[in-house]
Amino acid sequence: MTDAARVLVVDDDAGVVAFLVEVLEDAGFRAEGLSDPAEALARVEAEPFDLVVSDVEMPGLRGPDLMRAIHARRPDQLVLLMTAFGSVDMAVDAVRAGACDFVSKPFSPDRIVLAVERALEERRMRRQIVRLRRQLPGGEDAERIVARSPAMQRVCDLARRAARGGVTVLLGGESGVGKNVVARLVHDAGDRAGGPFVQVNCAALPEALVESELFGVRRGAFTDAREDRRGLLVEADGGTLFLDEVTEMPLGTQPKLLDVLETGRVRAVGAGEPVAVDVRFVAATNAAIEQAVADGRFRSDLYYRLNVVRIEVPPLRSRPEDVEPLVELLLERACARQGRGLLGVSASAWRWLRTWRWPGNVRELANTIERAVALAEHDTLTLDDVRPPAPPAAGEDFLAGAVAAGMRLADLEATYIDRVLQHTGGNKVEAAQLLGIDRRTLYRRLEARDDD
After folding, report:
1. pTM
2. DSSP secondary structure of 1-38
3. CATH node for 150-314
4. Distance CA 12, CA 57 (A)
5. 6-135: what fold?
6. Which CATH class is domain 390-452?
7. Would 6-135 and 319-388 be classified into the same CATH topology?
8. CB 98 within 8 A of CB 347
9. In the chain, pLDDT over 90 holds for what percent of residues?
10. In Å, what is the CA distance from 192 to each residue of 240, 263, 305?
11. Predicted confidence (pLDDT) per residue in 162-178, tens digit
12. What digits encode the pLDDT tens for the residues 39-55?
């Protein structure tokens, strides 16, 4: 009996408490009950339980208020609410605020036992997932992609089938959905898995250096070319070259890339003879590439060479089943990077994480978890840790606040860029227009910040 889950029942009706304690003990739990919610709060503060089952309507301290007080002291404490039929709407609101579940009175013994078992099983499964991940070989590389949702399972299936054929793959999808992870899956699932995987963001490269970075350069080809340098195409020989934001490639460079795709040969800037390369191409864009072709910004012949297998990566809001395993994976990685013990997630934080629309997709989720781990004061992430701060009140002087806080100019710029990206839902093209800079400058500033 020592391994049985401990459950605390709280109800101002002593008869209900005695009945529930008996039902739960008969079901194999270690149960105890209290009729005073204030006494229950002190009991939980002194010694945590696996689950607290509380009535909603109690004199002195109502169930939702008791739950909030418990979570202020123990953010990871599971709380299940019992409510009369007339207060179901209020109970639903309480669930959104952090209750793990609720049951309506009157209920059968089987119903309450099932609700308790379900709440405890959900927690057990989460903890088991964490333990299994720690045992996986390869650390972070052992979990490259999360695909619990049917939508992402279809993406992974298509990526693996495309990998076997060695064909060129074009990935589409919003910014931050994880196209780079799918590109890596294509590489790892094919016969080039042992070769290099080289990633280049075409939007982040200065236009004047795109050709020398991709194709390489010979010493003396131009003023700053003081030595021979291999290009990324040669670096990727025997492996995969991932061209991210491919629609941002300068129009003058596109025919040279097309020639590499058709001939398998690369000529460095300033070189006489081309060299043969064996490269598998995966390209990605968060823009409408067909519109870029129609506008004359992207060559149609290059588009057809790249668009052999098309894979659309869905936004995170359309695959909510992936949010929870992503949070668990990202939380483990963030804790490892920041040297913290593995943190838990409170019920209210889970509710918010599951229901937020994630306009910035997986990238926004990753940044949210990274920030939450850095700022968390408990061993469990709370709602305040994961939820973004509210915007300033009307009339609040943001610049005065920044000066008072001693904010550096670089931090002020980064904060403003984040606000604009949040306003545009992660759309970098629209954000660059609002900021009055070109897209390449925005990409370079974001990448420089990520490298810090």
Report:
1. 0.63
2. -TTSPEEEEE-S-HHHHHHHHHHHHHTT-EEEEES-HH
3. 3.40.50.300
4. 8
5. Rossmann fold (3.40.50)
6. mainly alpha
7. no
8. yes
9. 42
10. 7, 19, 20
11. 998 889 999 999 988 99
12. 999 999 888 788 999 99
